[in-house]
Design brief:
Blueprint: H1 2-19, H2 21-30, H3 33-55, E1 74-76, E2 83-85, H4 97-134, H5 136-142, H6 147-157, H7 160-167, H8 170-179, H9 184-211, H10 219-235, H11 253-256, E3 261-263, E4 266-268, H12 278-282, E5 285-286, E6 289-290, H13 295-322, H14 331-349, H15 365-368, H16 371-386, H17 391-407, H18 411-424, H19 431-450, H20 459-486, H21 493-514, H22 542-583
Antiparallel strand pairs: 1-2, 3-4, 5-6
């Protein structure tokens, strides 16, 4: 019997190794008997502790007050004037067992969610960091395996012990949920949503790990801390009415809170009624549509959100693994991703229409859409670096452009080809692509203004659009600056680019504040219109606004001219060097 089992196991492993060698490599290094037994022991020990901690709190047939919330019926004793549980015919307290199992179910659910998401991200990024440090990641890239198989092997193989330990908890979790009156379909939906969110988190973590090779050792802690903060925000039931509400879609525990645990003759939301504002979460909306009012709408929206973002991260992760020399994000991909993120963020800024128009009088668009410009500011800064090609890529592209220009006599075709390259070719400078993404953000801002029909004045909309226009122009200037820095002969140009953006976005407003530049009066208020935070716009005259617009146009024109000459000069020098070498 043992020999037969061994042969079956070997045959199964051979098939797995033939289907995905990377998965087999990960399993062979981790699925050792000692590791498996230790994982199962820890899993069972945690389960025992989660159950025992509530069993010891149950009321006994004395007058102790611990665990009184689990009593089926409480009575007051005449001797000690204390509340105690009503005793049954056997002399033991009558316990409302569904409430006990519901508390155990809640704690096991938290363990499943937090350990799977945070622990899995940590293990994946730590393994990737080790591969890069040892140099074995380059061997994986050169192997005949497709990048999809390598990534699947990593996702399924690296956290395999974590999967095993959590799988051992599923029988307890499922049984506790059913005994706590949770329907089976809701539990299965919870498992599906948890898997989709884990896929999104894992692909994002691996992509971040490939983008930051210089943070080896600190990468796992940084990504685990980011995921921990996101889950902590999502666990809160309070509705903020801003982009922060997006985090609620990444916390699958929210799905379980819809069900009311049914005890004998009692119905209440037992697992989450302590310190959990479910009423605030129930009003969660997206573009005037209530998505938090019902478990079905929340499930569909959260599932779509996790799968769409996970698919985006998967595409860019494959791209980064196959060709690490290319930009982390393609120009064409960035347009779709920006549109997707902008719509999601704007939807949570415009959640629901007010019941009474009078209560919104005196409010402006900025009072309700305030988080959208801030979110898009962060998104645009990240896009600057994701779309930034390497110096060698720009050199190759500029040399090719110079060769094509020298051989072509059709100026219209030349301009058309140049425009197409700047919009879609990943090796070309990314300034125009950043401008297109900023235009997409502006279009979504107009959509958000259009779907708020309770606002009658248009002055607030014009002010918000003009403020975002100043911010977008400033961000475009920053993108051109870092593109110019990337083409300079500086060894650590990436750090210089990061420092330049930080100085322009944060340092410049800080300097203005330290110099006492007022937002309300004096000519110094117009200096704020040439920053990423043009908060002095409501206090500026139209003449000053016109000067600020002219200043932005002058800065952009100067930067574009300098960058164009720099790229053309590089292309000419590279082409001359190549032709000289061929002639020699």
């Amino acid at each position: 019997m043992g020999v037969m089992f061994t042969k079956i196991a070997e045959s199964g492993l051979d098939r797995i190794g033939g289907w995905n060698p990377q998965l087999m490599r990960e399993w062979q290094g981790r699925l050792r008997w000692r590791n498996v037994l230790l994982t199962l022991l820890i899993s069972f020990a945690v389960q025992i502790l989660l159950v025992v901690q509530y069993l010891v709190k149950l009321p006994q047939n004395d007058y102790r007050s611990s665990g009184m919330q689990y009593c089926l019926e409480q009575i007051q004793t005449s001797e000690a004037k204390l509340m105690t549980c009503k005793l049954g015919a056997d002399g033991y307290p009558l316990i409302n067992w569904p409430f006990v199992w519901a508390d155990v179910f809640r704690d096991v659910s938290l363990v499943l969610v937090w350990v799977l998401l945070i622990g899995g991200m940590y293990l994946l990024v730590a393994d990737l960091s080790k591969e890069m440090r040892r140099g074995t990641l380059n061997f994986l890239r050169m192997s005949p395996q497709p990048s999809r198989q390598i990534l699947l092997g990593k996702l399924m193989g690296v956290p395999v012990l974590l999967y095993l330990g959590l799988a051992a908890m599923l029988p307890l979790h499922l049984s506790m949920g059913l005994m706590a009156t949770y329907p089976l379909m809701l539990l299965l939906a919870f498992y599906g949503l948890l898997g989709a969110i884990a896929f999104c988190f894992y692909t994002a973590a691996l992509w971040f790990g490939l983008l930051t090779p210089g943070l080896q050792g600190f990468q796992p802690w940084l990504i685990a801390g980011t995921g921990l903060g996101l889950l902590a925000v999502g666990f809160s039931g309070y509705r903020d009415g801003s982009s922060l509400d997006w985090a609620r879609l990444f916390e699958p525990i929210q799905l379980l809170s819809y069900w009311e645990v049914k005890g004998p003759g009692i119905q209440m939301t037992w697992p989450f009624h302590h310190g959990f504002d479910q009423q605030g979460f129930r009003y969660l909306g997206w573009f005037l549509q209530p998505i938090g009012a019902h478990s079905g709408t929340y499930l569909l929206f959260a599932l779509a959100n996790a799968l769409i973002l996970g698919a985006w991260f998967w595409v860019v992760l494959e791209r980064r693994l196959e060709t690490p020399g290319r930009t982390p994000l393609g120009k064409v991909q960035s347009y779709g991703l920006t549109l997707c993120l902008s719509l999601i963020v704007m939807g949570f800024n415009v959640q629901s229409a007010p019941t009474e128009v009078d209560q919104w009088k005196g409010q402006s668009f900025s009072d309700f859409l305030w988080s959208y410009p801030i979110s898009m500011l962060i998104c645009a800064i990240v896009l600057m670096f994701l779309l930034l090609p390497s110096q060698q890529a720009v050199l190759d592209w500029s040399r090719y452009r110079h060769q094509y220009t020298a051989a072509s006599n059709q100026s219209r075709q030349h301009r058309h080809r140049l425009l197409r390259d700047l919009l879609s070719h990943d090796a070309s400078p990314g300034g125009l692509a950043v401008a297109v993404n900023l235009g997409v953000m502006t279009g979504v801002l107009l959509l958000g203004i259009a779907v708020t029909p309770w606002y009658s004045p248009t002055a607030g909309a014009a002010e918000l659009l003009l403020r975002w226009g100043f911010c977008a122009a400033f961000l475009l200037s920053c993108a051109l600056v870092i593109q110019w820095i990337s083409l300079s002969n500086v060894i650590h140009w990436r750090w210089l680019a990061f420092g330049s953006v930080a100085t322009l976005v944060l340092g410049w407003p800080i300097v203005l504040s330290m110099l006492g530049a007022s937002l309300y009066d004096g000519p110094s208020r117009y200096l704020w219109l040439v920053t990423a935070f043009p908060q002095s716009l409501p206090h500026a005259a139209w003449s000053g606004i016109g000067l600020a617009i002219a200043a932005h146009l002058t800065i952009l024109t100067t930067l574009i001219t300098i960058l164009t000459r720099r790229v053309q000069g590089l292309g000419q020098s590279e082409w001359k060097a190549l032709t000289a070498a061929q002639g020699g």
